[in-house]
Amino acid sequence: MSGHRRLPVDFDLGLVASDIDGTLLLDWQPISEATIDAIHRCQREGIPFVLVTGRPIRWLAPIAEQIPDLGRVVCLNGAVVYDIASESVVDAHTLGHAEVVEIVSAISGEHPEAHFAFETLTGLFIDDGFATRSPRDATVIGDISEIADRDVVKILVSLGTEDSAALHDLLGPLVTRSCHATFSDPVNGLVELAPRGITKAKTLESVCDHLGVGQEQVMAFGDMPNDVEMLSWAGHGVAMGNALDIVKESADAVTDAVEDDGVAHYLTAMLDALPAR
Protein backbone atom coordinates (compact mmCIF):
# COMPACT_ATOMS: atom_id res chain seq x y z
CA MET A 1 0.00 0.00 0.00
CA SER A 2 2.97 2.27 -0.55
CA GLY A 3 1.94 5.77 -1.58
CA HIS A 4 -1.51 5.52 -0.08
CA ARG A 5 -2.76 7.19 3.04
CA ARG A 6 -2.26 5.25 6.24
CA LEU A 7 -4.75 3.06 8.03
CA PRO A 8 -6.85 4.75 10.72
CA VAL A 9 -5.39 4.67 14.22
CA ASP A 10 -7.38 3.10 17.07
CA PHE A 11 -10.32 2.40 14.76
CA ASP A 12 -13.03 0.22 16.32
CA LEU A 13 -14.08 -1.65 13.18
CA GLY A 14 -17.68 -2.81 13.53
CA LEU A 15 -18.86 -3.19 9.93
CA VAL A 16 -17.45 -3.07 6.40
CA ALA A 17 -19.62 -1.70 3.60
CA SER A 18 -18.61 -2.04 -0.03
CA ASP A 19 -19.81 -1.13 -3.47
CA ILE A 20 -19.61 -3.95 -6.05
CA ASP A 21 -18.77 -2.79 -9.58
CA GLY A 22 -15.41 -1.07 -9.85
CA THR A 23 -14.75 -1.87 -6.20
CA LEU A 24 -15.02 -5.63 -5.61
CA LEU A 25 -14.92 -6.62 -9.27
CA LEU A 26 -14.25 -5.17 -12.71
CA ASP A 27 -16.29 -5.49 -15.91
CA TRP A 28 -18.62 -8.21 -14.62
CA GLN A 29 -15.76 -10.56 -13.86
CA PRO A 30 -15.94 -12.83 -10.78
CA ILE A 31 -14.73 -11.45 -7.45
CA SER A 32 -11.09 -12.44 -6.93
CA GLU A 33 -10.15 -15.18 -4.48
CA ALA A 34 -8.06 -12.68 -2.51
CA THR A 35 -11.08 -10.44 -2.02
CA ILE A 36 -13.36 -13.34 -1.11
CA ASP A 37 -10.79 -14.53 1.44
CA ALA A 38 -10.67 -11.05 3.00
CA ILE A 39 -14.47 -10.92 3.20
CA HIS A 40 -14.63 -14.34 4.85
CA ARG A 41 -11.91 -13.38 7.31
CA CYS A 42 -13.90 -10.29 8.19
CA GLN A 43 -16.98 -12.43 8.81
CA ARG A 44 -15.05 -14.98 10.89
CA GLU A 45 -13.93 -12.16 13.17
CA GLY A 46 -17.55 -11.19 13.72
CA ILE A 47 -17.49 -8.08 11.53
CA PRO A 48 -20.47 -7.84 9.14
CA PHE A 49 -19.65 -7.26 5.48
CA VAL A 50 -22.48 -5.42 3.73
CA LEU A 51 -22.75 -4.88 -0.01
CA VAL A 52 -24.04 -1.42 -0.97
CA THR A 53 -24.64 -1.24 -4.71
CA GLY A 54 -26.53 0.43 -7.51
CA ARG A 55 -27.33 -2.99 -8.97
CA PRO A 56 -30.93 -4.18 -9.14
CA ILE A 57 -31.94 -7.36 -7.34
CA ARG A 58 -31.76 -9.50 -10.48
CA TRP A 59 -28.04 -8.72 -10.86
CA LEU A 60 -27.16 -10.02 -7.39
CA ALA A 61 -27.31 -13.71 -8.34
CA PRO A 62 -23.65 -14.00 -9.50
CA ILE A 63 -22.51 -12.41 -6.25
CA ALA A 64 -24.69 -14.74 -4.18
CA GLU A 65 -23.14 -17.72 -5.97
CA GLN A 66 -19.65 -16.63 -4.92
CA ILE A 67 -20.54 -15.40 -1.42
CA PRO A 68 -23.87 -16.95 -0.37
CA ASP A 69 -23.58 -15.97 3.30
CA LEU A 70 -23.68 -12.19 2.88
CA GLY A 71 -27.13 -11.60 4.38
CA ARG A 72 -28.62 -8.15 3.77
CA VAL A 73 -27.61 -6.15 0.70
CA VAL A 74 -28.35 -2.49 0.05
CA CYS A 75 -29.13 -2.26 -3.66
CA LEU A 76 -30.51 0.19 -6.23
CA ASN A 77 -28.49 3.03 -4.64
CA GLY A 78 -30.28 2.61 -1.32
CA ALA A 79 -33.85 2.17 -2.54
CA VAL A 80 -34.02 -1.50 -1.54
CA VAL A 81 -32.63 -3.72 1.20
CA TYR A 82 -32.58 -7.33 0.01
CA ASP A 83 -31.77 -10.48 1.97
CA ILE A 84 -29.72 -12.88 -0.13
CA ALA A 85 -30.26 -15.87 2.14
CA SER A 86 -34.06 -15.70 2.09
CA GLU A 87 -34.25 -14.10 -1.38
CA SER A 88 -36.67 -11.50 -0.06
CA VAL A 89 -37.06 -7.74 0.06
CA VAL A 90 -36.59 -6.47 3.61
CA ASP A 91 -37.34 -2.80 2.93
CA ALA A 92 -38.05 -0.61 -0.09
CA HIS A 93 -38.35 3.09 -0.82
CA THR A 94 -40.55 3.66 -3.84
CA LEU A 95 -41.60 6.49 -6.13
CA GLY A 96 -45.35 6.98 -6.35
CA HIS A 97 -46.85 7.05 -9.82
CA ALA A 98 -47.61 10.77 -9.55
CA GLU A 99 -43.93 11.36 -8.72
CA VAL A 100 -42.85 9.24 -11.69
CA VAL A 101 -45.11 11.25 -14.01
CA GLU A 102 -43.78 14.53 -12.59
CA ILE A 103 -40.16 13.48 -13.09
CA VAL A 104 -40.70 12.21 -16.63
CA SER A 105 -42.68 15.31 -17.55
CA ALA A 106 -40.05 17.68 -16.13
CA ILE A 107 -37.24 16.04 -18.08
CA SER A 108 -39.18 15.41 -21.30
CA GLY A 109 -40.45 18.99 -21.31
CA GLU A 110 -36.90 20.28 -21.55
CA HIS A 111 -35.43 17.33 -23.44
CA PRO A 112 -37.95 15.57 -25.68
CA GLU A 113 -35.16 13.26 -26.89
CA ALA A 114 -34.95 11.67 -23.42
CA HIS A 115 -35.56 7.95 -22.95
CA PHE A 116 -36.40 6.25 -19.68
CA ALA A 117 -36.08 2.92 -17.86
CA PHE A 118 -37.96 2.08 -14.68
CA GLU A 119 -36.58 -0.38 -12.16
CA THR A 120 -39.40 -1.86 -10.11
CA LEU A 121 -39.68 -4.58 -7.49
CA THR A 122 -41.10 -6.83 -10.21
CA GLY A 123 -38.69 -6.14 -13.07
CA LEU A 124 -37.35 -3.59 -15.54
CA PHE A 125 -39.63 -1.58 -17.82
CA ILE A 126 -38.26 0.58 -20.63
CA ASP A 127 -39.62 2.89 -23.28
CA ASP A 128 -39.16 1.84 -26.88
CA GLY A 129 -36.02 3.92 -27.46
CA PHE A 130 -34.11 3.06 -24.29
CA ALA A 131 -30.95 1.00 -24.96
CA THR A 132 -30.26 -1.55 -22.21
CA ARG A 133 -27.44 -4.04 -21.76
CA SER A 134 -29.98 -6.72 -20.86
CA PRO A 135 -32.95 -6.40 -23.24
CA ARG A 136 -34.18 -9.89 -22.40
CA ASP A 137 -34.75 -8.73 -18.82
CA ALA A 138 -36.81 -5.72 -19.90
CA THR A 139 -40.47 -5.16 -20.75
CA VAL A 140 -41.08 -2.44 -23.32
CA ILE A 141 -43.92 -0.03 -22.55
CA GLY A 142 -45.64 2.51 -24.74
CA ASP A 143 -46.76 4.83 -21.96
CA ILE A 144 -45.87 5.22 -18.28
CA SER A 145 -49.52 4.63 -17.37
CA GLU A 146 -48.69 0.95 -17.95
CA ILE A 147 -46.58 0.92 -14.78
CA ALA A 148 -49.05 2.85 -12.61
CA ASP A 149 -49.46 -0.11 -10.26
CA ARG A 150 -45.75 -1.02 -10.10
CA ASP A 151 -43.38 -0.19 -7.24
CA VAL A 152 -40.78 1.99 -8.99
CA VAL A 153 -37.52 2.15 -7.06
CA LYS A 154 -35.20 3.74 -9.63
CA ILE A 155 -35.51 5.66 -12.89
CA LEU A 156 -32.69 5.71 -15.45
CA VAL A 157 -32.51 8.52 -18.00
CA SER A 158 -30.61 8.69 -21.30
CA LEU A 159 -30.30 11.47 -23.88
CA GLY A 160 -28.26 9.31 -26.24
CA THR A 161 -24.96 10.82 -25.08
CA GLU A 162 -22.04 9.19 -23.27
CA ASP A 163 -20.86 11.72 -20.67
CA SER A 164 -22.75 10.80 -17.50
CA ALA A 165 -21.31 13.66 -15.43
CA ALA A 166 -22.45 16.25 -17.99
CA LEU A 167 -25.87 14.59 -18.15
CA HIS A 168 -26.12 14.65 -14.35
CA ASP A 169 -25.30 18.36 -14.31
CA LEU A 170 -27.88 18.98 -17.03
CA LEU A 171 -30.78 16.98 -15.58
CA GLY A 172 -30.14 17.22 -11.85
CA PRO A 173 -31.55 20.75 -11.42
CA LEU A 174 -34.78 19.71 -13.16
CA VAL A 175 -35.62 17.04 -10.59
CA THR A 176 -33.79 18.10 -7.44
CA ARG A 177 -37.04 18.70 -5.53
CA SER A 178 -38.57 15.32 -6.38
CA CYS A 179 -35.73 12.78 -6.33
CA HIS A 180 -32.01 12.17 -5.81
CA ALA A 181 -29.86 12.11 -8.96
CA THR A 182 -26.50 10.38 -9.32
CA PHE A 183 -24.51 8.20 -11.72
CA SER A 184 -22.37 5.07 -11.41
CA ASP A 185 -20.53 4.92 -14.74
CA PRO A 186 -18.87 8.01 -16.26
CA VAL A 187 -19.26 6.86 -19.87
CA ASN A 188 -22.60 5.01 -20.13
CA GLY A 189 -24.61 8.22 -20.49
CA LEU A 190 -27.10 7.36 -17.76
CA VAL A 191 -28.39 9.32 -14.79
CA GLU A 192 -29.97 7.30 -11.99
CA LEU A 193 -32.87 8.77 -10.04
CA ALA A 194 -33.86 7.46 -6.60
CA PRO A 195 -36.66 8.57 -4.28
CA ARG A 196 -35.92 11.93 -2.68
CA GLY A 197 -33.50 11.69 0.25
CA ILE A 198 -32.51 8.11 -0.56
CA THR A 199 -28.80 7.40 -0.98
CA LYS A 200 -26.50 4.51 -0.22
CA ALA A 201 -25.50 6.30 2.98
CA LYS A 202 -29.06 6.82 4.20
CA THR A 203 -30.03 3.17 3.85
CA LEU A 204 -26.68 1.88 5.13
CA GLU A 205 -27.34 3.91 8.26
CA SER A 206 -30.60 2.05 8.82
CA VAL A 207 -28.86 -1.31 8.30
CA CYS A 208 -26.21 -0.31 10.84
CA ASP A 209 -28.93 0.72 13.31
CA HIS A 210 -30.52 -2.71 12.86
CA LEU A 211 -27.17 -4.42 13.57
CA GLY A 212 -26.28 -2.14 16.48
CA VAL A 213 -23.23 -0.67 14.75
CA GLY A 214 -22.32 3.00 15.17
CA GLN A 215 -21.46 5.28 12.27
CA GLU A 216 -17.97 5.77 13.67
CA GLN A 217 -17.36 1.98 13.40
CA VAL A 218 -18.11 1.74 9.68
CA MET A 219 -15.44 1.35 7.03
CA ALA A 220 -16.76 1.84 3.48
CA PHE A 221 -15.24 1.24 0.02
CA GLY A 222 -16.34 2.78 -3.27
CA ASP A 223 -15.29 4.23 -6.61
CA MET A 224 -18.10 6.26 -8.22
CA PRO A 225 -20.21 9.38 -7.47
CA ASN A 226 -23.08 7.24 -6.16
CA ASP A 227 -20.63 6.20 -3.38
CA VAL A 228 -19.69 9.73 -2.28
CA GLU A 229 -22.38 10.11 0.40
CA MET A 230 -21.51 6.69 1.83
CA LEU A 231 -17.77 7.36 1.98
CA SER A 232 -18.39 10.75 3.59
CA TRP A 233 -20.84 9.31 6.11
CA ALA A 234 -18.75 6.31 7.19
CA GLY A 235 -16.33 6.53 10.07
CA HIS A 236 -13.60 5.73 7.56
CA GLY A 237 -14.23 6.00 3.82
CA VAL A 238 -11.83 4.35 1.38
CA ALA A 239 -11.75 5.19 -2.34
CA MET A 240 -10.41 2.75 -4.88
CA GLY A 241 -7.28 3.63 -6.84
CA ASN A 242 -9.44 3.61 -9.98
CA ALA A 243 -12.04 5.94 -8.44
CA LEU A 244 -12.96 9.28 -9.96
CA ASP A 245 -11.19 12.26 -8.39
CA ILE A 246 -14.41 13.55 -6.81
CA VAL A 247 -14.71 10.23 -5.00
CA LYS A 248 -11.11 10.23 -3.80
CA GLU A 249 -11.62 13.75 -2.46
CA SER A 250 -14.56 12.59 -0.35
CA ALA A 251 -12.66 9.66 1.19
CA ASP A 252 -10.32 9.39 4.16
CA ALA A 253 -7.94 7.04 2.34
CA VAL A 254 -7.20 5.59 -1.09
CA THR A 255 -6.35 1.95 -1.69
CA ASP A 256 -5.13 0.09 -4.76
CA ALA A 257 -7.26 -0.22 -7.90
CA VAL A 258 -9.88 -2.94 -8.19
CA GLU A 259 -7.73 -4.92 -10.65
CA ASP A 260 -5.02 -4.96 -7.98
CA ASP A 261 -7.37 -6.23 -5.23
CA GLY A 262 -7.51 -2.90 -3.44
CA VAL A 263 -10.28 -3.94 -1.04
CA ALA A 264 -8.49 -7.17 -0.13
CA HIS A 265 -5.19 -5.40 0.54
CA TYR A 266 -6.66 -2.59 2.62
CA LEU A 267 -9.07 -4.78 4.57
CA THR A 268 -6.41 -7.40 5.32
CA ALA A 269 -4.03 -4.72 6.57
CA MET A 270 -6.82 -3.29 8.73
CA LEU A 271 -7.67 -6.70 10.21
CA ASP A 272 -3.99 -7.39 10.88
CA ALA A 273 -3.76 -4.11 12.78
CA LEU A 274 -6.76 -4.80 15.03
CA PRO A 275 -6.15 -6.00 18.58
CA ALA A 276 -7.00 -9.66 19.18
CA ARG A 277 -10.73 -10.18 19.76
Question: What is the name of the CATH architecture of the largest domain?
Answer: 3-Layer(aba) Sandwich
In the predicted model, the low-confidence regions spanning at least 5 consecutive residues are none
- CATH class of the largest domain, named Alpha Beta
Extended strand count: 14
What is the CATH H-level superfamily of the largest domain?
HAD superfamily/HAD-like
How many H/I helical runs?
8
* Sheet with most strands: strand arrangement: 8-7-6-9-11-10
Helix content: 25-40%
- What count of domains describes the coordinates? 2
- Through-space gap between termini: 25 Å
The fraction of residues in strands falls at 15-25%
Describe the main β-sheet briefly: 6 strands, mixed
**Structural class, from secondary structure content?**
alpha/beta
Please describe what this structure looks like.
This is Hydrolase. Keywords: Hydrolase. The chain has 277 residues and is of the alpha/beta class. The chain has 2 domains: 15-93 and 199-273, HAD superfamily/HAD-like (Rossmann fold, 3-Layer(aba) Sandwich), CATH 3.40.50; 97-194, 2-Layer Sandwich (Hypothetical Protein, Haloacid Dehalogenase-like Hydrolase, Chain: A, domain 2), CATH 3.30.1240.10. It is built from 8 helices and 14 strands. The strands form 3 sheets. It has a 6-stranded mixed sheet. Strands 2-1-12-13-14 form a 5-stranded parallel sheet. It is globular. The model has no long low-confidence stretch (mean pLDDT 94).
